[in-house]
Amino acid sequence: MSSAIKISPSILSADFSKLGEEVVSLERAGADYIHIDVMDGHFVPNITIGPEVIKKLRPLTKKVFDVHLMISPVNKFIKDFADAGADIITFHPEATDNMSETIKIIKDKGKKVGVSLKPNSKIELIKDYLERIDLILIMSVEPGFAGQKFMPSVLNKLIELKEIIIKRKLKIDLEIDGGINFDNCNSAKKAGANILVSGSTIFKENGGDLKKNIGLLRSN
Fold first, then answer.
1. What residues contact 212, with CB distance under 8 A and at least 6 apart?
2. Is 177 among the residues known to form the active site?
3. Active-site residue flag, 108
4. How far is Cα 64 from Cα 156, in angstroms, rounded to an integer?
5. Third-level CATH fold of 6-219
6. Cα(54)–Cα(46) distance, rounded to whole angstroms?
7. What is the pTM of this model?
């Protein structure tokens, strides 16, 4: 796990009428990753974008596409998102009948494997698979909508995972997503997160000054 803090702006909060321009602006502003939330209206109560949109965005930036699949059943869609240009593909344990198979499908496509835990999802769901995972995404809101309030109770999960990762000498990034702002980002970092996902704060604070907001999240 890298000790440097990475910022992964969520384009869920971007202006969808000019999504390509927004992605280019994020790269110029110093974003490390581009976080892409994929929702199916089934696993979560909302619908966002599919692989075709990612495919169109891919030529616009060399930044890592950090794709969070909130879709179920997830396995049949992984190939499409991998082929569209995802670099990290993150899924939920509850969205598959076979964790090993899902991990293998992602690895076979040459992509990094992420697994996401919702606020009430237990660490036990992923403990047996940690050696095969590249990233763990801790949701600090219930997945499905942008602009929700941060749930500090999930920080204990981050702390516990960080301890396990150090003890087992694993290389796993710890990412947090949900209501991350200038007030709580430091708590998330102290708990062990090295990748911060943020949407509303990056796109709306300080008059939408992307560079300033990314910098503040990184340094606060």
1. 206
2. yes
3. no
4. 28
5. TIM Barrel (3.20.20)
6. 18
7. 0.95
> In a structure prediction context, what are the per-residue pLDDT tens digits for the chain, which is 220 residues long?
445 999 999 999 999 999 999 999 999 999 999 999 999 889 988 889 999 999 999 999 999 999 999 999 999 999 999 999 999 999 999 999 999 999 999 999 999 999 999 999 999 999 999 999 999 999 999 987 666 789 999 999 999 999 999 999 999 999 999 999 999 999 999 999 999 999 999 999 999 999 999 999 999 8
Q: Enumerate residues 6+ apart whose C-beta is below 8 A from 19.
A: 11, 53, 57
Say which of 32, 66, 173, 177 is annotated catalytic: 177
Neighbours of 46 (CB within 10 A): 15
Annotated active-site residue in 37, 40, 66, 134 = 37
Taking the domains of the chain in order of start, what are their residue ranges? 6-219
3-state class (DSSP) for residue 220: coil
